[in-house]
Amino acid sequence: MGPVSLSRTPIKRDMTIEAVSKKTYTRQDTLRGKITPERAWWNLTHYNLDFEFDIENKYLKGSNIIQYTVLEPKNVMQIDLQAPMKITEVYQAGASLTFKQEGSAYFIQLNQEQVKGSSKEIEVFYEGSPRVDPNPPWGGGFTYKQDANGKPFIYSACQGDGASLWWPNKDHMYDEPDNGMKISITVPEDLMAVANGKLTATEKKDNGKTTYEWTVVNPINSYGVSLNVADYVHFSAPFKGMKGELPCNYYVLPENLEKAKTQFKQAHLMLEAFEHWFGPYPFYEDGYKLVEGTGMEHQSSIGYSGYQNGISGGSDLSGTGWGLKFDYLIIHESGHEWFANNITYKDIADMWVHEGFTTYAEALYIEYHFGKRAGEEYLKGISQGIKNDKPIIGDYDVNDTDYTGDIYPKGAALLHTLRQVINDDEKWRKILIGLNTDFYHKTITSVDVENYIAKHSGIDLSTFFAQYLRTTQIPTLEYYFKDNKFAYRWINAVPGFDMPVKVKLDKQELWIKPTTNWTHEFTEDPKKELIIDSNFYVSSFRNMK
């Protein structure tokens, strides 16, 4: 909050917060983050990614067949691949195509007529040594380790940085392959390659190598495509869920097998809770996997490490004790199957939709298994980490990776506050399920989510979302008591902010409906004390008499 002056009578105050400094972007940020004309004219339908991994030299070489439907008859296509990887050749219908490179963007000149409505494909050949991740999974790239027996243990992570850091694709979140993808990986025969979807073929070759074919039948976001290579051991435990039997497969290092058999029992507890809150697991056809590597929401192939409850190091993010009741990586990263992989942001500016809902899902997991009060305590605990340093919605049409950490706790806190405003838990649950039903396997914007919740709650939430998503200000209830008068209003708020709030007034619980103008109530008895329900993410300020 900004400077506040105190007085005996209400006066206007300067509650403004310094403007957030404007970010600067490069041409490459725009080419990554904008739906460029060279992307907009075609709709992605399928990938067929096939490559060999030379582990000793940390080198990939292969091809990607990209299938698409023509939306408008253009002839220049943008495909992305980041250095030091490089595209070497591109073909369509057997003919070699020319291309120009601008940083990570390759602009391919198509020779065939691109007839609107027609289905086409190109084959892109590529090779190189993908970037090594300097700080897994936050740095982006590949991580090279060894297991207890000295065998290679390798995994990828590329959220924010983009899948194009290791394979050529249409690297923008707005367009996912309608019919999924096939991923074929050739590795030394004493190792196993694990990717998304289901294992559909294994071919041992004469040269001492093995190719693993993984098939994804559902749409998949590009950063959710993963690669894990190790001497994995495998076990499974099917889950009887809302849509029948869900295959649950687990791939872990040999030395961690017994720990995994115990720790991964939480996967069924997660599925039970989240199917209750959000509806059926969104990828029954592709199955569910936990794969030892790094914590990341790779679609149908959740990355995992740690084998302990709590967040990294076994700590409780909430400081309440409830965070030690579950394994953060299993619960949080799996929660992204609903919010990130099923419902996916079109633009990274709206990443709060992924992280806010999934952080809130942690509290719902606690509530499902330990009761409503426990979930509330956990949520209030993690909200202590809110910084209000930047609005939680970023800049559009660029790859704005400089987002605030508030997308996690503040995103969750605003959803918890919204639940209080709606004041109907069954309606709230229907809204959460409805989001995952109506936006099933779709890419969306924050506005899509905002409008959906407003429509199905029957409440005008325009100023609510403007306040919590697009400012750093904490709405503050200013109030005072004078004789038999109780007066209150919202300050530190956007114009027209009118969120109702539950309070205790001299120990009597009631709802009040403040606006940004003063509301005066007159009572028979003088009032002395007001306490705001702590489930609302707001501040309060009592004016001196």
From TrEMBL:
List, in alphabetical order, the Gene Ontology terms for molecular function in this entry: metallopeptidase activity; zinc ion binding
Keyword set includes Zinc: yes
Q: Where is each Peptidase M1 membrane alanine aminopeptidase domain found?
A: 328-468
| Binding of Zn(2+), residues | H332, H336, E355
Catalytic site residues?
E333 (proton acceptor), Y408 (proton donor)
Q: Which CDD domains match?
A: M1_APN_like
Protein name per its UniProtKB record: Peptidase M1
Species of the source: Arcticibacterium luteifluviistationis
